[in-house]
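Training component of the fellowship. As part of building independent skills, the fellow (R.M.) carried out the full modelling exercise for a liganded target. The chosen ligand was beta-D-glucopyranose. The inputs are recorded below so that the supervisory panel can assess the work.
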Amino acid sequence: MQYNVTIPIKELISKMTLEEKANLVVGAGKSLRVPGAAGETRNIRRLGIPSIVTADGPQGVRIEGDGKPYPATAFPSAIVLASTWNPEVVEKVGKAMGEEAREYGVDILLAPGMNTHRNPLCGRTFEYYSEDPLLTGEIASAFVKGVQSQGIGACLKHFVANNQETNRFVVDTIVSERALREIYLRGFEIAVKKAEPWAVMSAYNKLNGKYCSENEWLLTKVLREEWGFKGLVMTDWGAGEDPVAQMKAGNDLLMPGNDDQVKAIIEAVKKGDLSEAILNRNVENILRVIAKTPAFKGYKYSNKPNLEEHAKVAYEAAAEGIVLLENRDSTLPLDKKAKIAVFGTGQIETLRGGLGSGYTHPKYVISILEGLKERKLNIDDELADRYEKYIKEMRAKEGYKPRRPGVPLPPLPQDFLSEDEMEKYAKRNDVAIIVITRISGEGWDLKPEKGGFYLRDDEKRLIEKVSRTFHKHGKKAVAILNIGLPIEVSSWRDLVDAILLIWQPGQEVGRVTADALIGVINPSGKLPVTFPKDYKDVPSWNFPGEPPNDPRAVVYYEDIYVGYRYYDTFGIEPAYPFGYGLSYTKFEYSDLKVEVTEDHLKVEFKVKNAGNHPGKEVAQVYINPPRGKIPKPLQELKGFHKTRELKPGEVEEVEIRIPLRLLASYNGEKWIVEPGKYEVRVGSSSRDIRLRKEFTLTNPLSYKP
Ligand code: BGC
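Fellow's submitted model of the complex:
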């Protein structure tokens, strides 16, 4: 059907009946047009208003299909995209996902997920970007721009402070306005202002006593009045309790939607409990978005997205997100001819991503073992067969059998090879690789226990046994971390010679892993989140709230001191700091210049590849503030730049502009930049500062929220 695109929205609203309006603000329950997509709005045929389809999610387009396959690229998880620190690459991923969504008939992609990494146990950490709001906001902006360049909408989620899965439907998040504005809201603010997303999804949880979806302060005052958001707000699926309160708060669309909600809204208007003007406002917000969609324009989607091209994009982003955590005596890259013994069932049961609504249905996933074989690395085939057989045998046993796809596999005991076998593999190979995996997903958080934040005993025994035996024969051991959130590493990292953090990098996982091992890829990812030494060091010690077994409320006692803001200010040594990541080459920094203008800082410096491999560097700018009236973190990330690939000896001149506004703290009323001596710190990580320069601000600055 060709929909009429010329009717002005106000006029259209004036023609709508109350019933039609109530139907528009409540979703259709499920998608009929694209079966198994996460949701669809209701159409109003009489007026030429089509339904629009929404689908997950951050790791790739998820359409369950109800029997019909909707293969889509499994892109790297969000945490990998943030680890790239490369908005250009992330924009390409957004573009590719946008094209896939559009070609399957989707109008709004339910991504990016951009909640702050408050605690390493949050089950959806892999789906979110970072513990730092600037990195989150910049990466999200690039992603949104990419998606929306394809003529469909992106949806920032979950707004806001949805930092745990435990009791997410009911838990009350108690957090100060300062922490909200400086940490939890900030990433969203950047993305709203920079990338103009078509939609925002309100979160399940309560915020300071009110469900996010019923919170007028959040959805109307902050989001629309202060930030100028022009799109539509939808609920998370089944969020909140009171449809009328949601309407009033500025939650335009209730998803997935049911008839009771429609009825409640009609009755409330009739009784005078909900003014029709509010309903009209929400209808208008939805119609403005509908008018931009492919559905409204009558776009004929092909059901044939360009999966071949997008596999390359998935590879490129995964490659840039790999973080090299350890590399003693230049263990990596490996010689291409090296004989490699691969340990750990994760070489076959490799994780492309986390679980839940972000699940994906790719055409294929290249496991680590397949990737090594495809790249013709010299692996110990007999050992690989041993693992194939072990997995087959174990997965047939009660307790280890796979359940349906998308449900975590019960973990297999890793320590099943005898000392004699180990001896044999160590003798005839040059190097050992040990794959460690950790799955997590929507709906459940990990525990600060073995098998959660800590390695299980069998995993540790495998690492000990392999490294002891290989070292005895003068050979090296390399750990590969196929995980979606930070885990404990301090107690075992010295046993191995190198650690490659590949995260959960999507369907090309095996290929990028092989290429990074042999140096075809020079790792250039940096940590978007701190790896704490021990769980007791984590500032959000009361996660997931009180009472711990069934929390109703979670108080953010650590306030603004989230991630490195805490570890740096209070002198706690992490295992790996924020922004950290090694390379096969080394970089030198020089010639720092800082210029203060009326409204920004101009920071210039040079980065030189001073090693032997071509490589990219992520240069980070932190600001150390003066001691003023408002207590502040020791330093905060205020800018970053990823260089192009520099050849050995090559230099890039970097210029980063930092708005002075970004230096402000929120004092409960307004944003204040206090006068005094500031230090610009340019570094390769938050704890590897290479250049410093002071500047003085003589006058205070202040801004309205
Ligand atoms: C998740 C959202 C998702 C939605 C639709 C919810 O359970 O929290 O992230 O977009 O389901 O699948």
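The panel noted the following from the submitted structure. The longest strand covers residues 587-596. The pocket of beta-D-glucopyranose is lined by residues 38, 56-57, 110, 157, 236-237, 357 (CB under 6 Å).
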